[in-house]
Amino acid sequence: MNDLCFACLDCKAYIDSGYRWCYWILEDLGIVKQGQSISIPAVLAATVYWRGGEDAEWLAVLLPKVKVFLEHHQDHALLYGETLTFPVMLEDDADTRWMEWLDEEGTSITTPREFRVFLGCTNWDQIMAQVLNRQQKDRPWWWSDTPAVKQVQAYFQS
Ligand SMILES: [Zn+2]
Q: Side by side, which strands form the sheet with 102-103?
């Protein structure tokens, strides 16, 4: 199982939905289905899901953010699924859609848009400085992918 999240197709933004917690509760109850649009009232009414923070510190931090996300994007096209369901990574060399996606939680700053929004990077040199400043394991996946590096360079040169 990969990362499960709620994604707004209009804003190209997404947020972690709580991994196994979401899987066990919302999927098991049939409230959400992977790869399908969601009913916000149904998710907001799933009180068991929202109580996840009572037993887990990380859910106590995450779930209020999820709620804000759902409320903020309630009139938009929302999808539930793995990050692979929508393009947050390079799918082919010509596909540049992944660069505009934003993880609203801001935990792993990876895409050019995240570098711009969270770190204020406006050119390639700033991105490179940020990436080189990180430990190898914390560098974005695209750093070792030549076509993706070229895409990011082009993104900041246009
Ligand atoms: Zn939206």
A: 36-37, 78-82, 4-8, 13-16, 102-103
Rounded to the nearest whole angstrom, what is the distance from the C-alpha of residue 65 to the centroid of ligand 1?
A: 14
**Residue count of the chain:** 158
Cβ-contact 79, 14 below 8 angstroms: no
CA of 39 to the centre of ligand 1 (A): 14
Q: What is the pLDDT of residue 96?
A: 86
pLDDT per residue over 96-139, tens digit each? 888 999 999 888 899 999 999 999 999 999 999 999 999 999 99
Distance 43 CA to ligand 1 centre (A): 16
Please tell me the distance between residue 14's alpha carbon and the centre of ligand 1 in angstroms.
9
Residue (of 87, 105, 91) closest to 12 by Cα position: 87
**Is there a contact between 147 and 90 (Cβ–Cβ < 8 Å)?**
yes
- Residue matched to tokens 């799933």: 46
Q: How far is the CA of 69 from the centre of ligand 1 (A)?
A: 8
pLDDT digit string, tens, across residues 51-77: 999 989 999 999 999 999 999 999 999
List beta partners, residue 102. Answer: 13
